[in-house]
């Protein structure tokens, strides 16, 4: 078990964490990035990315994250294959964090970029049939449903993208949404409605996922019509839940202020938390925009503010106390 010391400790390795690392490394803060359970973050389970500036052609999410990591390492970031399991923020800088490996990390500043993860419906059968027909990642699991009938639940960008992606594997994709209109961007909606392999079921909620986890997995969804209240069975081989995300803030409960959704609260317009030297960036503090490019932007802001924090603390320490004049 080792202790790793740095001027900037970053928890999380998505666009926010890696952008903070790139800026931090270039400011000679020798950052350490603790990668977490999903190195590269949510973009690693996405396929096409066509709205990250700088790329005229579509790029792949995993590729983009590999490039960001390579850039961060190239300028001097240390990447750690570990997951933080506890943090000590009470005693101020340096902040101490312990990894799953037993290693200890000490950062003069701390950048929290733990992101968000897929939300689940929380209905019967969902967990039991997880990996047996129920999934929250079409990119990861779509391949298993080659030539089969699949459903996607949700009406946002993620759900529409998942449905479109699944047409690479299946000729029979149904989007199931609880209302009669989608919140996904217009351009995605148009692609969805035009697609010959996709149907949409409106005003339906999933009451349960049915099937035997030990024999054959998912067989059907039990659906309720939100207008008539009628129940129906929707038979399919795979169901992909795509209803948004929840921030990964378990580590910071009772340590940092959060809103009702569990997102970290920061000083408006900055990545500063209430603890000097601790910054939050990316999806963990942003439930409004949640884009790779906005996450990268706030990661940059966190690194700049961390640098300023260190410069100010150094200046304050170097001041000769008045009493000794
Ligand atoms: P969103 O929060 O945008 O959408 C969630 C969807 O799930 C909504 O349609 C919502 O319905 C539905 N939903 C939520 N809870 C339930 C429930 N309990 N039962 C049934 N349906 C439910 O999440 P996304 O993951 O789609 O997107 C998150 C953010 O990431 C957005 O800002 C999005 O723009 C962005 N994004 C951007 C992409 C891109 O630009 N390429 C790709 C993917 C995401 P309702 O509409 O009724 O509230």
Automatic annotation (TrEMBL):
**Record text on cofactor binding:** Binds 1 FAD per subunit.
Top-rank taxon, per record:
Bacteria
Tell me which Gene3D superfamilies the record gives: FAD/NAD(P)-binding domain
Q: Could you tell me what reaction this enzyme catalyses?
A: [thioredoxin]-dithiol + NADP(+) = [thioredoxin]-disulfide + NADPH + H(+)
EC numbers on record: 1.8.1.9
All copies of domain FAD/NAD(P)-binding, residue ranges:
7-299
PROSITE patterns per the UniProt record, alphabetical: PYRIDINE_REDOX_2
Sorted alphabetically, which keywords does the UniProt record give? Disulfide bond, FAD, Flavoprotein, NADP, Oxidoreductase, Redox-active center
Q: Which cofactors does the annotated protein need, by name?
A: FAD
> Assembly state and interactors?
Homodimer.
Read off the NCBIfam families from this record: TRX_reduct
What family is reported?
A: Belongs to the class-II pyridine nucleotide-disulfide oxidoreductase family.
Recorded protein name is Thioredoxin reductase
Task: Quote the gene name from the UniProt entry.
Answer: trxB
């Amino acid at each position: 078990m080792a202790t790793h010391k740095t001027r900037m400790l970053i928890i999380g390795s998505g666009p926010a964490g890696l952008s903070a690392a790139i800026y931090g490394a270039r400011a000679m803060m020798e950052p350490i990035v603790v990668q977490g359970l999903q190195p590269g973050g949510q973009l690693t389970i996405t396929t096409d990315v066509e709205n990250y500036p700088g790329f005229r052609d579509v790029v792949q999410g995993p590729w983009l994250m590999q490039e960001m990591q390579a850039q961060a390492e190239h300028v001097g970031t240390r990447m750690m294959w570990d997951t933080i399991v506890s943090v000590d923020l009470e005693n101020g800088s340096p902040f101490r964090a312990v990894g799953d490996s037993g290693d200890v990390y000490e950062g003069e500043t701390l950048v929290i970029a733990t992101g968000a993860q897929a939300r689940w419906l929380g209905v019967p059968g969902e967990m039991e049939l997880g990996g047996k027909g129920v999934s929250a990642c079409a990119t990861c699991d779509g391949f298993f449903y080659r030539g089969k009938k699949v459903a996607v639940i949700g009406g946002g960008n993620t759900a529409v993208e998942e449905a479109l992606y699944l047409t690479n594997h299946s000729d029979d994709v149904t989007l199931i949404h609880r209302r009669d209109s989608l919140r996904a961007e217009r351009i995605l909606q148009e692609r969805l409605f035009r697609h010959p392999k996709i149907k949409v079921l409106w005003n339906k909620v999933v009451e349960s996922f049915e099937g035997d986890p030990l024999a054959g997995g998912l067989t059907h969804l039990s659906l309720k019509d939100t207008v008539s209240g009628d129940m129906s069975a929707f038979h399919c081989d795979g169901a992909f839940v795509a209803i948004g995300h929840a921030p990964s803030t378990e580590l910071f409960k009772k340590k940092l202020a959060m809103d009702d959704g569990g997102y970290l609260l920061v000083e408006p317009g900055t990545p500063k938390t209430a603890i000097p030297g601790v910054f939050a960036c990316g999806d963990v503090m942003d439930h409004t925009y949640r884009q790779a490019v906005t996450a990268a932007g706030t990661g940059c802001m966190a690194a700049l503010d961390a640098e300023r924090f260190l410069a100010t603390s150094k200046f304050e320490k170097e001041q000769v106390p008045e009493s000794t004049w």
